[in-house]
UniProtKB/TrEMBL annotation:
<keyword id="KW-0804">Transcription</keyword>
<dbReference type="InterPro" id="IPR050109">
    <property type="entry name" value="HTH-type_TetR-like_transc_reg"/>
</dbReference>
<keyword id="KW-0805">Transcription regulation</keyword>
<dbReference type="InterPro" id="IPR009057">
    <property type="entry name" value="Homeodomain-like_sf"/>
</dbReference>
<feature type="domain" description="HTH tetR-type">
    <location>
        <begin position="6"/>
        <end position="66"/>
    </location>
</feature>
<protein>
    <submittedName>
        <fullName>Transcriptional regulator, TetR family</fullName>
    </submittedName>
</protein>
<dbReference type="GO" id="GO:0000976">
    <property type="term" value="F:transcription cis-regulatory region binding"/>
</dbReference>
<dbReference type="InterPro" id="IPR023772">
    <property type="entry name" value="DNA-bd_HTH_TetR-type_CS"/>
</dbReference>
<feature type="DNA-binding region" description="H-T-H motif">
    <location>
        <begin position="29"/>
        <end position="48"/>
    </location>
</feature>
<dbReference type="Pfam" id="PF00440">
    <property type="entry name" value="TetR_N"/>
</dbReference>
<dbReference type="GO" id="GO:0003700">
    <property type="term" value="F:DNA-binding transcription factor activity"/>
</dbReference>
<keyword id="KW-0238">DNA-binding</keyword>
<dbReference type="InterPro" id="IPR001647">
    <property type="entry name" value="HTH_TetR"/>
</dbReference>
């Protein structure tokens, strides 16, 4: 096998997903993944800390992408307009090209409690990045947290819905649909003062 063969991370990811589905996450070993990909165990550990991280490949880059997308918006734009303008292109950039992998990942994670916990940790990291992004834009902590929760809710709902739709539907269109539904719900809110 070639020592520096290109596409190693992608090959390892595809091999791992196939084995996780075939024999289960817990039953799959790193040497099996490496062998399936035609690579060495050492190569595996150059790309991933452990086999769980295969399922979350690329997630560590997401906080920097959050900052990049937030920086594209003028500093005086409030949180909700920022979410309305940036969430769909953000989702498309980060997840839009990985539909097949996300579908497999969803199936695998749903069968393992430890993976569900890791997914929640990754989601908490993303939420924290969004909160920090809003706070760097001089949004107070409460508003930043609520805005991050809104962004996470819309993104999670859109991703779940997108994975059930026809492949030709772009993720950005589903995000726009979910945001429109949210706007409709929000318009029905009536805030009354407490006596």
């Amino acid at each position: 096998m070639a020592r520096w063969e290109g596409g190693a991370q992608d090959r390892l990811e595809r091999a791992a997903l196939a084995l996780f589905l075939e024999q289960g996450f817990a039953e799959t070993t790193v040497p099996q993944i490496a062998a399936q990909a035609g690579l060495t165990t050492r190569t595996f550990f150059r790309h991933f800390a452990d086999k769980r991280e295969v399922l979350f490949a690329g997630d560590d880059a997401v906080p920097a992408l959050v900052q990049r997308f937030m920086a594209q918006v003028p500093p005086d734009v409030r949180p909700v307009p920022l979410i309305l303008s940036q969430l769909a292109p953000f989702a498309e950039t980060v997840f839009g090209h990985r539909r097949d992998v996300l579908m497999l990942r969803h199936r695998i994670i749903s069968l393992d409690q430890g993976l569900e916990e890791r997914k929640l940790q990754k989601m908490a990291t993303l939420r924290a990045a969004i909160v920090n992004g809003f706070m760097h834009r001089h949004t107070d902590e409460l508003t930043a947290g609520l805005a991050a929760d809104l962004a996470m809710m819309v993104l999670g709902t859109a991703l779940t819905r997108w994975l059930t739709l026809d492949e030709s539907t772009p993720l950005s269109a589903v995000v726009a649909q979910v945001l429109a539904a949210f706007r409709q719900l929000a318009s029905e809110l009536e805030i009354k003062s407490v006596p």
